[in-house]
Amino acid sequence: MPYTVTEFFDLTILPELNATKKYFEETLNHLEDKFTSTEAFTESFSIMMKKSFLITSYTILEKQLNMLARLVEKNSNTSLKLVDLRHRGIFRDYNYLIKVVGFTPPPTKLWKKIKIYNKIRNCFVHDTRKVFNYNDVAKLSNKLVPYIHFKKEQNDRYTINAIHSNIIIDFIDTIAEFLKFLWVESSKIKN
Description:
Blueprint: H1 5-34, H2 40-74, H3 89-101, H4 108-126, H5 134-140, E1 148-154, E2 157-163, H6 166-188
Antiparallel strand pairs: 1-2
């Protein structure tokens, strides 16, 4: 029995995202029950755990977006292929679907949030600095993604003071909305 794109998404991709969200919530609840805020270990471990879950969630986004782009590429009549584009990762896959294949772009706010989470993920993975300047702070915590709290140390120097738990829930929900939008768009493209 063939599935609609929405049913496919709900049966395959959404369970992976929901399982990650559930595991995060269970881990967070377990840690809150086990540790008190007076333990020095609690604060740094909490930040590391949230970074880890964000990176894991981002990996799901990359994997699923790439899978969709490759599936569309395989069934597309375009002569331009994914490997022909200069970007890598989510930007290459997104640009292929929007600019080459002709998907309708998702709502601007949704794509902006994905790009902010990309900057946050890249900061966590590639940037080992402990001190940030104001421009970095503005990129990593803003109205769309206000979950990283910084403490001003001196002049233009900031450190991460806390990462709110809602960052993971919001990111997973954002990924689900973004991917579902693109999967629905894939069903509208004529080969």
